Amino acid sequence: MGAKKVIEVPYVVELPVGPQHPALHEPLLLKAYAEGEEIVKVEINTGYNHRGIEKLAERNNFYRNIFICGRVCGICNTVHANCYTRALEYLLGVEPNNRAKYLRVVAMEFERIHSHMLINAIMAEILGFDSLFMNMMLDRERIMKAKEILTGNRVIGDYMMVGGVRRDVDEVKRDKLIKLLKQLRPRVEYYKKLFIEDETILKRLVDTGLLSRVNATKYSFVGPVARGSNVRIDVRASDKYDAYGDIPWNVITYKEGDSWARMMVRWDETLEAIDMCIYALEHLPSDGNPVPDERRLPRKFPEGESYARVEAQRGELTYYVMSTGGVNPYRVKIRTPSFLNVIHSAILYPGYSIADLPVIFVSLDPCIACMERVAVVDVDEGRRRLVRLKDLAKGVY
Amino acid sequence: MGKPKILKLILKNFVSKPATLHYPLKEYRVIKFPYEHTLIEEDARGRHYADLTKCTGCSLCKLDCPADAIEMIPIPEGYEAPKINPRKIYPVVNYFRCVFCYRCVTICPVNAYITTSEYRLASPESIDSSQLSLSTLKKASGG
Q1: Yes or no, beta carbons of A149 and B1 under 8 Å apart
Q2: Phi and psi (nearest 5°) for B78?
Q3: Could you tell me the pLDDT band of residue A14, with boundaries at 50, 70 and 90?
Q4: Residues of A with CB below 8 A from B106's CB?
Q5: pLDDT tens digits, one per residue of A221-263
């Protein structure tokens, strides 16, 4: 008796991209399943970069934590420190003066400029456009210099303190900063024009990694990824923390929802941030000293809990701080925007080719900080499966 | 496919000076550079050490250091310990652990820290601040 039925199973290649991979700058495993050149499924495995910052924060006092939280992520250190510091200010009932608020905004927007320029440069490098990458990084030096003038260090600012900032700017420094920003603005405009007109970039980015408006809200994407899909979500506009309520600026949204729209949101935000910084520096209020005396700040914090959120470069960042009336916090909970953007990004890849995978991944501006999922291993059956935190809390696993 | 838009910039870069330079080099072929390393701001946060004529040995900088980089050690024999320092201890900053947040500088009750903008730390000698700190003290006579 011969065979009556032939079942053809399509040949699917399992392709691990990461955690150590030349195209990815972050330790993350994207397990892609490809049918020929086309990706059919992507699994995202995290947990290669777990450092236990939240636990560390419980063992250190409130003030040491300002610097520890600033080191959760190198690129967005000022926003992390600002969010944690504002959570502490809510606990204490302290409010910084207007000059400190303006300076905080300037520091955070400097960081947004250099972060967005960096991810756009990395995108150029991923596309194989190395000369553009190098030119962008060269122009990024201007903003790094500006950050050095303002905060005292090129990357890690350590600029925030409860009740204000840690150093003031004088007239000379202010003029230098405005000059640097005005030099940078035409360069950013040039690169934006390049991203609109250059065919090499357009061919790789347009219609790659499409994210519809419905999916952007359904899967809780935040930051430029959501704004690239025409979702108007920005904590700076909804909370108006620090001086964001006083400085004129716009929320940038694009309708396209592809990788190109996400990069264009970042370019427009960079231009917007440069204008905001120039405005803030030109209209810097002088209502007292923005630098608090760190020796006179209270060591013990009152009992209570507080919750603060900021718009980091990658989206909404939240801090929850709980105090039981001691020197150390009882609990510090950090939710980073990349967690939402990267965990749910598996829906973006299917249907595109393997070469598009790094492009889509970089267009999300990934920043792998403290991301972990719970895995349950069934010892009897030897199976391993992922369980949602909601089910784990109910005891259903 | 049209002309690459970046072509003009690339051609301009062919004839311009190099933007970066390897650290110990002072010149590139025939072009001389006016500096030997990246110029940084004078108040950038660099290597800092305690001025032992002011330090009271209160250990507050050690307690508040987020990186646990500061250790309090006794002032060695042969140095005149000032009277304001009854316990005769002084802070030593381990520059390899230090994150240069300057919390110790701002928290010090007597402003004892001397700050510099020296960021080049690759040196086999000054891996901590003990030599720099002790240089602020006078040697004991006959010691």
Answers
A1: no
A2: 95, -5
A3: confident
A4: 166, 294-295
A5: 998 999 999 999 999 999 898 889 999 999 999 998 899 999 9
B38 touches chain A (CB under 8 A): no
**pLDDT at residue number B138:** 78
Domains in chain B: ranges and CATH: 48-134 (3.30.70.3270)
Nearest by Cα to A158 from A55, A87, A64: A64
At A121, the pLDDT band (50, 70, 90 cuts) reads very high
Tell me how long chain B is: 143
Which positions in chain B touch A166 (Cβ < 8 Å)? 102, 106
**Local structure of A359: helix, strand or coil:** helix
What φ, ψ does residue A61 adopt, rounded to 5°?
-80, 170
A198 and B40 in contact by Cβ < 8 A? Answer: no
Q: Encode A333-371 in three state secondary structure.
A: EEECHHHHHHHHHHHCCCCCECCHHHHHHHHCCCCCCCC
Amino acid at A116: H
CA distance A339 to chain B (A): 26
Answer yes or no: are the C-beta atoms of A201 and A129 closer than 8 Å: yes
- The answer, yes or no, to whether ipTM is higher than 0.95 is no
pLDDT reading at A373 higher than 50: no
What tens digit of pLDDT does each residue of A311-330 get?
998 889 899 999 998 899 99
Contact criterion met (CB < 8 Å) for A199 and B106: no
The verdict on a CB contact (< 8 Å) between B45 and A294 is no
Predicted pLDDT of residue B143: 44
Under 8 Å CB-to-CB from A105, ≥6 apart: which residues? Answer: A242, A243, A244, A247, A276, A280
From first CA to last CA, the distance across chain B in angstroms is 81
Q: Is residue A386 pLDDT above 80, yes or no?
A: no
Tell if the CB–CB gap between A132 and B6 is shorter than 8 Å: yes
Domain boundaries, chain A: 53-363
B-chain residues near A65 (CB < 8 A): 66
In this prediction, residue A374 has a pLDDT band, given cuts at 50, 70 and 90, of: very low
CATH level 3 topology of A53-363? Cytochrome-c3 Hydrogenase; chain B (1.10.645)
Burial A149-188, CB ≥16 within 10 A → b, else e? bbbbbbebbbbbbbbbbbbebeeebbebbeebbeebeebb
Residue in chain B lying closest to A193 (CA): B5
pTM: 0.87
Please give the pLDDT value at position A51: 78
- B9 touching A, CB under 8 A? yes
Q: Do B101 and A61 touch (CB under 8 A)?
A: no
